[in-house]
């Protein structure tokens, strides 16, 4: 259809003057290519049969300015017969500002909905981990009183207490950072996996005084970095402490296997923490990471910490799941598997 009328508002919206636009094909001039076929078919059908497809309707599409820029418009179509010829009348509004406002409103709604959802997570994270800290301090104070005549042991207990106080302070800092959604992404940085694991293992040994812990490694490359933050230590500590707490054996055995894995054309670090503990039945494997998971006698309270672990791993755009150490027999122990994006 050729344009026969063009007012000042249309000039302002599309940047074409009346002289430039009159007589030009509307579909080729002010409409992006992806809409042309549909509109041309509807327009030609109307001229031949009088059948109305879009007449009398208001809809949102994109228009095309003189410089080729696409922008959102609202268009109302009607028809009028002049001198025995049908003419299509289009009323067009530039809705760029409205769309920008809608986008900002949607972002704001999503942001605050996510913040509200995460509020409980931050509360749970703090409550769960600060309880661990206080329990470790309480145990160390008790042992400190027992070893009054052993200066070496007393010194060890003092170091554990001090370490737990520092950990509690760090926890407060981490929760404060987590509470700012944008800060989570800004705090991401290349993190050397083996250094974080070493800290978590040191914490495990200090937290399992009086028990034998045997940790072995299967690592093809020790110089591996992932995109993470300080909370990665919290992930490893939770899993390792679970492996110790839910283990009846005289010797706690943990194998840490690290390798690389490619998934959907992305490179991940694959971390397996394999223990000889109680194990987790298949019916529990699917739910232990979920919020509000009710602990069973089999898992003996491990689910709550794992909920926190999963949320942290998710924030890294990673994955976590649990398998049997021995396929088909969960009583032989568990294998917690993590995928975290690698930094090349």
Automatic annotation (TrEMBL):
This protein's UniProt keywords:
Kinase, Transferase, Two-component regulatory system
The chemistry this enzyme catalyses reads: ATP + protein L-histidine = ADP + protein N-phospho-L-histidine
Every PAS domain range? 1-50
The top EC class is: transferase
Q: Name one GO molecular function term.
A: phosphorelay sensor kinase activity
Aminoacyl-tRNA synthetase: is it a keyword of this entry? Answer: no
The residue ranges of the Histidine kinase domain are: 125-344
Q: Which PROSITE patterns match?
A: HIS_KIN (PS50109), PAC (PS50113), PAS (PS50112)
SMART domains attached to this UniProt entry:
HATPase_c, PAC
Q: What is its EC number?
A: 2.7.13.3
Q: Which Pfam families match?
A: HATPase_c (PF02518), PAS_9 (PF13426)
Q: Where is the PAC domain?
A: 57-107
NCBIfam families noted in UniProt: sensory_box (TIGR00229)
Q: Which protein are we looking at?
A: histidine kinase
């Amino acid at each position: 259809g050729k344009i026969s009328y063009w007012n000042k508002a249309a000039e302002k919206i599309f940047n074409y003057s009346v002289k430039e636009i009159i007589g030009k094909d509307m579909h080729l001039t002010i409409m992006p290519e992806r809409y042309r076929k549909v509109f041309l078919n509807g327009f030609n059908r109307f001229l031949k049969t009088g059948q109305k497809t879009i007449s009398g309707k208001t809809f949102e599409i994109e228009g095309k300015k003189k410089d080729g820029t696409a922008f959102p418009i609202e268009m109302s179509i009607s028809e009028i017969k002049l001198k025995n010829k049908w003419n299509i009348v289009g009323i067009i509004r530039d809705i760029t500002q409205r769309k920008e406002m809608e986008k900002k409103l949607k972002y704001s709604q999503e942001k605050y909905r996510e913040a509200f959802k995460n509020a409980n997570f931050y509360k749970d994270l703090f409550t769960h981990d600060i309880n661990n800290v206080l329990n470790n301090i309480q145990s160390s104070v008790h042992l400190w009183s027992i070893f009054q005549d052993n200066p070496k042991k007393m010194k060890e207990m003092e170091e554990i207490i001090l370490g737990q106080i520092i950990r509690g302070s760090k926890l407060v800092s981490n929760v404060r950072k987590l509470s700012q959604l944008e800060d989570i992404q800004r705090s991401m940085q290349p993190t050397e996996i083996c250094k974080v694991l070493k800290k978590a293992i040191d914490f495990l040994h200090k937290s399992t005084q009086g028990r034998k812990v045997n940790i072995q490694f299967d690592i093809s490359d020790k110089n591996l970095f992932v995109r993470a933050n300080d909370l990665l230590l919290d992930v490893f500590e939770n899993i390792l402490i679970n492996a110790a707490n839910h283990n009846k054996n005289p010797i706690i055995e943990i194998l840490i296997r690290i390798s690389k894995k490619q998934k959907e054309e992305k490179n991940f670090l694959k971390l397996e923490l394999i223990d000889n503990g109680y194990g987790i039945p298949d019916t529990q494997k699917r739910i232990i990471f979920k919020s509000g998971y009710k602990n069973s006698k089999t898992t003996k309270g491990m689910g709550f910490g794992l909920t926190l672990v999963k949320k942290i791993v998710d924030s890294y755009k990673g994955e976590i799941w649990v398998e049997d150490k021995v396929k088909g027999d969960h009583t032989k122990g568990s294998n917690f598997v993590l995928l975290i994006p690698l930094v090349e």
